[in-house]
Write a structure and sequence with these properties.
Bound molecules: pyridoxal-5'-phosphate
CATH topology of the largest domain: Aspartate Aminotransferase, domain 2
Number of strands: 11
Mean pLDDT: 93
CATH architecture of the largest domain: 3-Layer(aba) Sandwich
Shape: globular
Largest sheet: 7 strands, mixed
Oligomer: single chain
Number of helices: 16
Strand content: 5-15%
Low-confidence stretches: 294-300
Structural class: alpha/beta
Number of domains: 2
Amino acid sequence: MKLIFEKSMPGHRSDLLPALDVPAFDLPASMKRAEKPALPELSETEVSRHYTELVKQVHGVNCGFYPLGSCTMKYNPRIDEETAALEGFTHVHPLADARDTAGCRKVLETAKELLCEITGMDDMTFEPAAGAHGEFTGVLLIKQYHKSRGDEARRKIIVPDSAHGTNPATAAMCGFDVVNIASGPDGLVDLDALKAALGPDVAGLMLTNPNTVGLFDSNILEITRLVHEAGGLCYYDGANLNAVMGVVRPGDMGFDCVHLNLHKTFATPHGGGGPGAGAVGCKAFLADFLPCSVTMDGPGRLQVRSFAGNFLVVVKALTYILTLGREGIPEAAENAVLNANYLMEKIKGTFEPAFDRICMHEFVLTLDKYKKETGVSALDVAKSLIDYGMHPPTMYFPLIVHEALMLEPTETESKATLDEAAEIFRKLYKQGFEDPETMKTAPHHAAIGRPDEVRAARNPVLRWKKEE
Ligand SMILES: *Cc1c(COP(=O)(O)O)cnc(C)c1O
């Protein structure tokens, strides 16, 4: 497909600028560019066709099944987009007078109240723009807390080996030493390893429950008790709250501080690099350390982003929570868990789950044995799924599982879709033994076959340059 610059034809145009209705102002020559910018010239029809062609080349939740584990690619109701598009929300200026922003404040306050109830926290900020940004903010709260008590010997943050990669990265960014503890063979935190790591130099623990292999750690109360007893605090990575929202609360599990990805669980589409919100909640004793722009005009303490964060993402989250209500929130969580278990059971017998027990909202397959038998890897299976109109699952994550494929079907998929997906997995399983070559060269019907992913990451070509 050609780039929009390559499609450009001199003289074609689609701009419709209104007539100037203010006095013309001539910029001084020093501020003007010497040459015209090299912008593509196309008619409105050509622009529209270009973007429609691009749309056809990507896969989204509106195109088909998208079981990308740890990403919660669920269908987001249109009503959430509609409220976020209301003029009173889109046209508000962050520096507007407090009198004129009462409605927006009410949105922030109500969303805070409801999300605090869902997480079991006492206070919250919406400043952080993403999950990792929320983690950074949350771990800074822990740092500030220890500092305020003169307890500066606490240099370490404990992170289990199954953690999302952002957890150790966050701890390091906040200036802590990262202590990795190994999971037990059951995929859960090894209590002895935790006890051995705890001490007066530990600032806290970062954990997600259910963890990244989709298992709920039933020792959670003991884990948080041990950390508190050693003087540390407990941070909950709530990026994926899909499995537990309205059912179990991080606050009740003993966590002191949590971030949520509103752009996974609460109605803003995840992926595609759009705006997100890593809402950070905490218990009352940490509230003084929170960034306080939530009321839009408070005196700044810690500040991690301008103004109230990505406000429209909060509007969507609030709409989502209010439309689902007290019954709908836990029902969505229960269906997410049901769908994951249903799909896992249907696939079992071919590709094998890494941990053969009831999972939460996602599960991990291991293709270690299958690869040894057929030569077909997790990557080959993922690529083959593309030819069936399905988005591949997350691959090679978490790192503790060999040849991992991680599936998160989400609550918004029907039984028919899950049956169809399981059938495709069964078919591919068989194909690996009969015709591995076709799988090793898949996909065969996509716009791009197998890009050189290492080169794409090391030498990304992100900018078009006009040929001289
Ligand atoms: C997605 C995710 C994150 C990071 O969220 P971003 O918004 O991508 O920064 C952190 N932890 C877990 C468990 C996640 O799934």
